[in-house]
Structure formats: structure tokens, C-alpha cells
């Protein structure tokens, strides 16, 4: 990844709605989502209106040299500070975009939101995301057999977790 490229994570705003929906509905993204159907703009707007009022949620946009390039959704329990995340990068984002987004999002989750733990759930055929969680320092914590039904076939779901204390020692590029 080019060291001169600038990355920045910011809160999602209303003007990001169309871009985020286009990514979410792209075949290369939605096939890996829980619920892989197309989402309508009206439904997307309703989701955004509700989510932005929720103080236990963070909707974040990754900017690459000022261009929106990815989305992260973190939700957490206010008392336990245990959260979970979902994310996707723009389908035409250059390699390395996801990794930088993940590192920035983990810093946001642990440093800014003060989370104790962040969890991720990955459909077993999503090899990129399985590997991605491992590279970011997550530990595989469970294999939920036939947990996700795509309308035709059942798939295993792999649960990952990363504790705040682990992140401080595992969040380097060398991992
Ligand atoms: C998962 C995702 C965010 C990764 O972003 P990316 O920009 O493709 O990933 P990067 O190029 O930054 O690579 C980061 C790590 O992901 C993994 N990875 C990326 N491409 C991969 C591939 N083709 N095969 C296997 N692992 C891959 C690797 O571990 C890689 O780290 P490494 O190169 O140091 O080994 C992105 O592919 C994406 O948005 N996928 C669709 C949506 C999705 O699956 N979301 C997660 C649902 S749980």
C-alpha cells in the first residue's frame, strides 16, 4: 500500500446514504452479508434514521485520499462494553484498503468507544473475511454449524473475538 495515501475514518452522514447502499447492494458485498437480498433506498433510510439515534452504535466511513472507500458498523452493549462489527470496502478499492480500515476501526472501538471486546461473525465460505479477522488479531471462538440459511443451503458461521488487552499487543502491521 502506498505510504503517501491518506486514510481517515469519520462518522457516516446522510450524504453517504447512496454510496453505502450501492456498496451494500453490490454482488461482491451482499453475497457475504447475513441477508443477501437487495435493499431498497427507503428501507436503507429508515435503518439510518434509527441507527443514528442509537448511542450504542457507530456508523463509520473510511476515506482514502478524501474519497469514501468503506463502511464500518459497530454496535455494543453500553454496560459490558462488548460489541460486534460489520464492514465492507468499496468493491473497486485497491488491495490493502480493508486492512487499514480494520486497523482504524479497532482503534476507534477500543480507544474512542472504550470497548472491552469486539466480535465478528463470518459465513464460513467468506475466506477473505476469515483470514482478515485472523490478520487483525481476532481469535476464532466458535463454529456455529448450519447457522445461516441463504434460502437454499445452510452454512456454518465462524465467531471471532478480540479483547481490548489483546488488541494493544496484536495490532501491528507485522501480524
Ligand atoms: C473483507 C474485506 C473488508 C477485506 O478488505 P480488502 O481490502 O479486500 O483486504 P486487504 O487487501 O486489506 O487485505 C487484508 C487481509 O484480508 C485477507 N484477504 C484479502 N484478500 C484476500 C483473498 N483474496 N484471499 C484470502 N484472504 C484475503 C488477508 O488476510 C489480507 O491480509 P494479508 O494480505 O496481510 O494476508 C473486503 O474484502 C470486503 O469488503 N469484502 C466484502 C464484504 C465482507 O465480506 N465483509 C465482511 C463480512 S463478515
Overview of the molecule:
The chain is of the alpha+beta class and 175 residues long. It has a single domain (7-170), classed as Aminopeptidase (3-Layer(aba) Sandwich), CATH 3.40.630. It is built from six helices and seven strands; from the N terminus they run E-H-H-H-E-E-E-H-E-H-E-E-H. It has helices at residues 17-25, 27-30, 41-52, 97-112, 127-135, 164-170; strands at 7-11, 57-64, 67-76, 82-89, 117-123, 139-149, 154-163. The protein has a seven-stranded mixed sheet with strand order 1-2-3-4-5-7-6, sandwiched between helices. A hairpin with a 5-residue loop joins strand 3 and strand 4. The radius of gyration is 16 Å and the shape is globular. The mean pLDDT is 94. The structure holds coenzyme A. Coenzyme A binds at residues 29, 32, 87-89, 93, 95-99, 120, 122, 126-129, 131-132, 135.
